[in-house]
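Human: I'm a chemist; would you kindly supply sequence and structure tokens for a protein?

Assistant:
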Amino acid sequence: MGVSELLLAGLILVLGLCGVLVPGVPGSWLVWAGVLWWALQDPRPAAWGVLVGATAVLLLAQVVRWALPPRRRLRASGATPRMEAYAGLGAFLGFFLLPVVGAIPGFMAGIYVHERLRLGGHGEAMAALRTTMRSGGSSVLTEFFACLLILGAWLVAVIRG
């Protein structure tokens, strides 16, 4: 697999990751499709292992999301696309700064920073963070974290390739 095809597969994964934050876009399916396309183009055992792992992680994430509040309640709680961008950036940075587990506090820190800038005070920002996480933020976090895990596994497989 050439460099241009790897970059294209990576772009599909990143677009899928961004799509998780946008309601109505099948972000997790884009991530899976990117891994599938990569595995079909690069038929090494590691590629197929990442594909099988990605499938299992996404199925597990869907099962967990069924137990959480639905995402549609998130907009009703006052969440904005800008807040989701802050949360996604925080999770992405946290995932790589504090490998893997940093995505969870990074996601919540992104929401907190957005709400602190919007509302001005610590107490109001913490209350907004709790409301957001209870109103569907945990569902978005679950799907985003699953896609970050897949992206990380793909990066490891490509770098070790």
Observations:
- The mean pLDDT is 93.
- The longest helix spans residues 122-160.
- The CA atoms of residues 12 and 108 lie 25 Å apart.
